[in-house]
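re: that chain from earlier
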Amino acid sequence: MEVGDGNSFPSSSFFYRLILMGMETRSWWNRSRNQIILLGLAILAAWLVRQTQGAALYEMYYWLTRPFHLATATVTEQDKIVRQIDPRINQLEAQLQEVQIQNQKFQELLNYVNSKKQDKGVVAPVIGRSADSWWKQIIIGRGSQDGIQNQDLVVAPGGLIGRVINVTPNTSKVMLLSDPMSRIGITISRSRNMGFLKGKAIEQGVMEFFESDPNVKVGDVVVTSAYSQIVPPGIPIGKVISVDMNKAPAPEAILEFFAPISSLEWVIVYRNQKLNSESNKTSNPSIELPKN
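^ sequence. v structure.
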């Protein structure tokens, strides 16, 4: 057998190097195996999340937290109970608040009636009020069957608010002092200067004086006049909040009504003793013209 030179077969040093490389690779794998596996799992997880849009994570979260979940039937039943209780509580709170407000209004009305024991009034609810005539008229739930007559006086806690201008058996129409067509005679309580009241379609009225130089100032109390043709004297109306002495043809004062005309719910109707049966039949009983 012929033996060739060193180029025919690999030398022993080559095999030695291969063995060393294998040992080094195995040692590197042993050291880095865990990191490589974790990196592979991370890449696989990222790929799965992207492909499933996170569904797998949601599923995993669900199963991990399932022991802490309430039974579906329990949650559904609780939801039903809560949905039934909350609106009921809100309803009861609203009803309680309304009852308290109504009780307060009735108490105020009762106190006012008790302060007028010498007069017998008819308590009436406000049952009608339209937006386009809010400051002009109201409808009350008492009529001729309750003894209401045309031109009866209508008051609320604070003072006069208007007069009855139309009566049916069970209802009455009231013209408010705030109606721009309303006219009544009034006087400054302190100085006794007189004039007549005109409505402004708000919670204020205008007093036009008969005198050219009236003694009036802000804060003066205004009551119905003894010279009024359609209302008795001394009924509270309001107080002066501004004065215009240069107003033509006569000085004027702006009044703020005592009674809450904008939020009437209950009123008291008193018989107008000043008017006789003939004056109730006048063609336009709702307007009192100023005296010259």
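Residues 151 and 285 are 7 Å apart (CA to CA).
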